[in-house]
Amino acid sequence: MRTRSIRRFLVFTALIAAVWGGVATWFYINDLVQPVLQPVNQSYVGYANVPRKVPGLRIEPFVFKGWDGGDVQAVIAVKDGEESSRQLSVIGDLMNNPAERLYQIDYVLVCVDWDHGIRSALPVAESLTAAGLTCVLWEPRGVEERRPYCTHGLKECRDVPMLLDAVTARSGKARPVFAAVGQGFGASLLLQAAATEPRIRGLVSIDAYASLRQSVSRTMPSGMLRHVVMWLMDQRISRAAGMESFDVAPVERAADMDRSVPVLVVNLMQDSPVSNLKDAMMIYRRLPSDRRDVWTLRSSSDQADATHREMSFGRGRWRESVQIGLLDDEDSAMSSIVHWLNDCVVDAVESPRIVEPARPDLTSSDMRL
User: Fold this and answer.
1) Does residue 111 contact residue 190 with C-beta atoms inside 8 Å?
2) What are the residue ranges of helices labelled H in the chain?
3) pLDDT digits over 219-274, tens only?
4) Strand 320-327 with 292-297, pairing
5) Containing domain of residue 145, as a range?
6) What is the distance between the alpha carbons of residues 323 and 265, in angstroms, rounded to a whole number?
7) What is the pLDDT of residues 285-320, one digit of tens each?
8) Residue 284 phi, psi (nearest 5)
9) Which of 1, 19, 67, 267 is deepest in the core (most CB within 10 A)?
């Protein structure tokens, strides 16, 4: 009788432990998944996504229908009024080094964050409008945040063709010239969009990650449990957003780009686990573009007067040397990007389009940087 009671107690204790462990695991996985499903930029908490007034800018709001049939808020931003500090920095650079062909670019799509789409893209728009460019910003979450979960550009990129249609209708031009500048989430979105949207004639990708799964995995503890945790996270992500982490791979979509489209890959985040120079190089090397460039910030190991850093990859006949452009700091990056748009995108607009892709012939082992 005593043995049976002890056995029942042990079974009951094991059941309680299993239930408690399951609940604890659920909460742990949910905490890990939350910033993936609903990333939040704390810099803009408490701010309206569409501000009434921005120094140096005139904002023209409009609404278009997104991929899911819902309304999406967007704005066209142009330089107007007293210049902001960001604009003055670009204007001062252009006085010494003019970018005289930018007028051939009608619009620049600008996207940064998922949760504060327009608000977070305004700093980039300020710099670009200082050069006379007209920017288009929009809310990836839709009007009144009707899309509750972030898919890291996988679904949000489907808005881009509708956005281009709406802007084209407003412009009065048959074929306006579009370029695009994305950062972080926005870079991932625009890389995926540009792979299938031929109206985007040039792309600047700042701090894009090569794949969502790789970026999330870097934040996990090492060891065998990492694979179990990633599998559980994917199940939670799939149930909520209808995707899994390996579905989002901008590095793979980069290989589908039209070779006539120039692409600039910029790494500013350096050693961040989310996006770093390794991601930038993987994307760069997958691009089939006839004009592709990769830039990063100057480090202490670079010579003070160096303009490029050389890196080699692969082995044997697959060995490749890459010249990485060096930026002095983040503040000067936008001026350099403006000149890149003036030199590379306008060249592409003036040249005949090349339909035949030129995919890099890279082995899987060669892609491991």
Assistant:
1) yes
2) 2-37, 85-96, 117-130, 159-171, 185-194, 212-218, 225-241, 250-254, 277-286, 333-340, 346-350
3) 777 766 777 788 888 888 888 889 888 899 999 999 999 999 999 999 998 777 78
4) parallel
5) 45-211+248-352
6) 12
7) 999 999 999 999 998 888 888 899 888 876 666 677
8) -55, -45
9) 267
The answer to whether 215 and 273 have CB atoms below 8 angstroms apart is yes
313: enclosing H helix or E strand: strand 308-313
pTM, entire model: 0.88
Q: Centre a 10 Å sphere on the Cβ of residue 80 and count the other Cβ atoms it contains.
A: 13
Instruction: Give me the number of domains the chain comprises.
Output: 2
In a domain, 303, yes or no: yes
Backbone angles phi and psi of 366, in degrees to 5? -70, -20
In the DSSP assignment, the letter for residue 253 is H
Any idea which residue has 């999406």 for tokens?
72
State how far the Cα of 135 lies from the Cα of 79, in Å rounded to an integer. 9
In contact, 64 and 73? CB cutoff 8 Å: no
Q: How far apart are CA 340 and CA 101, in angstroms?
A: 11
Task: Look up tokens 């972030």; give the residue.
Answer: 150
Residues in Cβ contact with 57 at an 8 Å cutoff, skipping those fewer than 6 apart:
77, 78, 79, 80, 81, 84, 122, 125, 126, 129
- Return the bridge partners of 292, or none: 263
Are 304 and 233 within one domain?
no
Q: Which residues contact 311 (CB under 8 A, 6 or more apart)?
A: 281, 321, 322, 324
Q: Do 114 and 240 reside in the same domain of the chain?
A: no
